Amino acid sequence: MSKNILDSGVKRVRNVSRFNVGFGSIGELPEVIDQQRVANKGQAVFLVDHFFRDKEALLNRLQPRPGDLIEFVDTVDEPKTSGIDALLESLKSRGYAHPAAVVGVGGGIVLDTAKAISNLLTNGGRAADYQGWDLVKQPGVFKLGVPTISGTGAEATRTCVMTNPANGLKLGMNSDYTVFDHIIMDPELTATVPRDQYYFTGMDAYIHCIESMAGSYRNAIGDAYSRETVNLCRQVFLGDDMMSAANREKLMVASYLGGCAIATSYVGLVHPFSAGLSVVFGLHHCVANCIVMRAMGKFYPEACDEFWQMADKQGVAIPAGVGANLTSDQHKALYEATVVHQKPLTNALGDGFKSILTPDRVASLFSMM
Ligand code: ZN
């Protein structure tokens, strides 16, 4: 029998080594980093979402020491291998070739950037050399993640998503060494997220789990994480105020558990279509997922009903009209960028997924978006 393409090769699952969770847990950060400063005799590099550039309150909580570096990371575009390489060179040229710790403070883009930089500082080479599975050979610099928005699960996963514009590959460094050594999940930090963004990003956790639970490749622990993630998302998004303090804490937990779930399983149809929208129109991952839900009623009927109920309840508008009046070239590009995601599509529809997702069918689905 030929090797099943859904054999992930991940037999021994590695989770984040340590975490803090709860309101005020950011207060633990200085001590954790001080321990690394002593153990590894170096300074800390803080990679911080540019959204916080003028947010003194947050920057003060980080308590940088003399000699540390705070570098703001632009999150207009999702990470590219070339951008990661440029940041790495810039850090090295400023004397940060051997820091004691790399700290990522932000959403998925910043957390993934921190993971990639930490690995490259000890492994050498360029970001594109490690796009794939288990290509990272050495542990990275001690890496600590502080999520400031909930949903992507980047704080929990063993990858860091990057696009390589040279070959169009959107693929991360899938490796046990990519997992954070420590994460701090403080729901106070998500209080200032714009409501729409909070919804789009939170839905990433929900969508990961409804996709993996509908798939054919299953993991018993992954299923348990998924069930609780969906349960928490229901409490948050069908509740009165998705951004109450209690709900922000629940969503932070859901994001982490959803990340653990996806680390042991595969997504399904939503993510490949969403990747198509990202590649062809440059839409960000989480809003693109929500747009794709416009066309998923036939594949995930119950989850779609619930998704629209949640959006109504929270008064969030999902962008419409992206797929209207597309040219045949655009349809061709969207088809290619979708069906390239063989593993999740096989997980959702089986080996013969291309006979279901014909170019015409894919075009009609995109036109619903
Ligand atoms: Zn996702």
Structural summary, described in words:
With 369 residues, this protein is an alpha/beta fold. 46% of the residues lie in helices and 10% in strands. It has helices at residues 29-40, 56-62, 81-93, 108-123, 195-213, 220-237, 245-262, 270-281, 285-292, 301-314, 328-339, 342-349, 353-356, 359-367, and strands at 18-21, 44-49, 69-73, 101-106, 132-133, 143-147, 163-164, 169-170, 173-174, 182-185. It has a six-stranded parallel β-sheet with strand order 1-10-6-4-2-3, with helices on both faces. The chain has a two-stranded parallel sheet with strand order 5-9. A two-stranded antiparallel sheet has the order 7-8. α8 packs across α11. The longest helix has 19 residues, at 195-213. The model has no long low-confidence stretch (mean pLDDT 95). The chain binds zinc ion (ZN). Zinc ion (ZN) is lined by residues 152, 204, 208, 271, 285. Residues 152, 204, 208, 271, 285 line the site of zinc ion.
